[in-house]
Automatic annotation (TrEMBL):
Transmembrane segments: none
Residue ranges constituting the Deoxyribonuclease NucA/NucB domain according to the UniProt record: 326-424
Signal peptide: 1-23
Ranges of Basic and acidic residues composition bias in the record: 48-60, 78-93
InterPro entries tied to this protein: DNase_NucA_NucB
UniProt keyword terms in alphabetical order: Signal
A Pfam family per the record: DNase_NucA_NucB
Stated name of the protein: Deoxyribonuclease NucA/NucB domain-containing protein
Region feature Disordered, mapped onto this chain: 23-93, 352-372
Amino acid sequence: MKRILAAVGVAATICLLVPTSQAAGAGERPEPTPTASATPEQPGGPIKETDGCKAQEKAAQRRAVQGDDQQVCIRPSTPDEARQTQPRALERKLEDHRPKDYVPIPEWCWDHALDGWWVNREHACKISSKTAIVRQFPTWKKIGEIYFLEINYAYTDASAPTWGNQIVVDKSGGWGAIEGARVQGFAACSGQCKVGEGKFPSQLLSKEKVSYGEWLLDSTVSAGQRGNGSNVPGYYITVPGAIPSPPEFDATETIRCDDELRPSKGPGCVVPSYEPPWAVSLSGQWKNFARHVRDAQKSGLPGAYPDGEPLTRLRDRADIRRNGDRACPQEGAGGYPRPTGYSCDEYPFRSTHQGAYTQSPPPQPPAPGRTFDWCQINQLGSGTGAKGWSACMIPATENSEAGREGLRPFYEDNRVLAKDEFHVWIVE
């Protein structure tokens, strides 16, 4: 893991989601909440959780006639079987007996154990409970079970065209003919990526030690482009004297890598299903800017974190200029007078598709503008609702800094590309 481990060694802090400058003056930096994800969509279509026992029953019985007398299969645990597993016990085991190069998973992954995929902009994690069953032929009688937890964890680096994927398999218990059971695995990348370094060698399934596999995946995206990829790690369990289980596949969440942010930033990778929030403090260095966004969102305009309709990034320079000109026309062109030391701030931002022009371009009638009683713009009145935009006079230095030192780094650090969705989080 040496190529990107140094960059993601602080993975659990989610540090790249909210750059320090965004919440200046607000005390400790807030951490956005990860969100649940549906079954990952791969470039070739969705891969759903498999039931190897059901899928292999008929084929396994056919093989038994030829003299094979035992077969191993893997399936999702039943609720009763899942109760045999203890995710927090596994967390303690990993703290005490960490495999070499193991990257600790975020605490929120443990909080959502056995609850599907959970993601933020740079991490995707799922802890599952599964059961390996040993059956006797030709009766198909169950003669042993292994209860185990699987951790599938993908972590990206927004500043490198490589991401990591690790698999942990931990035996929680079992019974019967399971002595000497082992697990080993492999990886295959789907989409615009290739498997680089990594391995999942054969390891004994033990309650005292976890089994572990890891890979680095390299993006194959061309310069100036973007593309999706998903690792499809597989593993199988063997028991002496039995046919190994069919491979258990568990595709990672889709990872997007791009090289669209040059020259300001090189290539990097993120989890695109997560809509990142930009945190801005009401008590920080851009408090008037934050106040305007807060009032605009409270009046019904989109973008509020976490439940508002998201904003969508716009990168067309001509449309960005049109958005700014419509929301904040210059004073000499029928626009608003600028008090000394102040400049006009617009929301939604001119760099979004919800901006004053692009939300209703010609031949549609212009969307209505609004302002607030402290904003020093007499030409606009109040308003409510999701349609429209707001304008406000705020200190010019603060206005320019919020864009240059806040919004722009947020876009780059989170690789918010054209048409990507995001929110604005106003904190105290």
